[in-house]
Amino acid sequence: MAESWGQSIVSWVKFLTELGVYMSPFLLPYFFRRLEGLRQNPRPLADFAFGVYCFYFLGLLLRAYGRFNNPTYKEFAEVLRKAKLDFSTEAKEALSAYDFEFWAWPVEFNATA
Fold it and tell me: CA–CA separation, 41 vs 35, rounded Å?
């Protein structure tokens, strides 16, 4: 439950940040008019940025807490750790039972060896 709440928070903050980046050509004229006021008193902008950062950090903490308390995730982390130490056929079969990012898969081939 905590993991899904945390993931939702992180996803929404990332989405709104990307939306702000793509909307910047439309928002820049508005902020350009307010720039003089922001130069005089940048505190509201800093408070807003700090609030977004705290909200994002809370999402990361909730997601980490949810994963830490999830027995399936603990089992996966242990299988992945063992596979990175000794990548055998058994470890490959055990890892193939999980759906995870490809970059975490242990290296199977070394061209320099």
Answer: 10
